[in-house]
Amino acid sequence: MRLIGMLDSPYVRRVAISLQLLGLPFEHRSISVFRDFDEFRAINPVVKAPSLVCDDGTVLMDSTLILEYAENLARGRRSLMPATVSERLADLRIIGLGLAACDKSVQLIYERGLRPPEKQHEPWVERVTDQMLAACTGLEAEVARRPLAATLSGMKQAGVTTAIAWHFLQAMLPEIVSAVRFPTLAAFSAQAEALPPFKAAPHGAGTYSSA
What we know:
With about 210 residues, the chain is mainly α. Helices cover about 55% and strands about 5% of the residues. The chain has a four-stranded mixed sheet, with helices on one face. The longest helix has 30 residues, at about 85-115. About 35% of the residues are buried.
């Protein structure tokens, strides 16, 4: 399989780390949806990261759908989702909050980074910022109430999503999302980022390496 997209995207990192934890080999191509638009379009005309080129040539997109496929490939060996309904419900709550934090942070970054200052809509910026912080507040409360495992054997998708979401926020918007305000998320993410699958796919412009 080939994973297409840059590791400065939390969604690409989410897939890269999860594939490793599931024991699924893959090749990573660090292609930008901005700088390498035509190259990306030749692989996936929608130009959406992450994209996964499956062994039969099928191209999947959206990290959650890619990971649903990956879970099926790894079935019988390992899953990053809990088996019981109650535990899965709790993890889905955490995953949803983590993805919401990512979604809103990306909207904020695009608004500030791509739109000229005179055309930025401040009420929209305030609204998106409030939504992002609300997601972080909910995530902090959930993880404080129900601690996540930060070990190779215990790491689940809720942990992966929480860790990469927090790391992305700190890399891109540290002046808005304070580690002092969210100590549980900061501590958990630091532990997770020390694990080999996270180190092998670091946030940035690099390429995942299985070495």
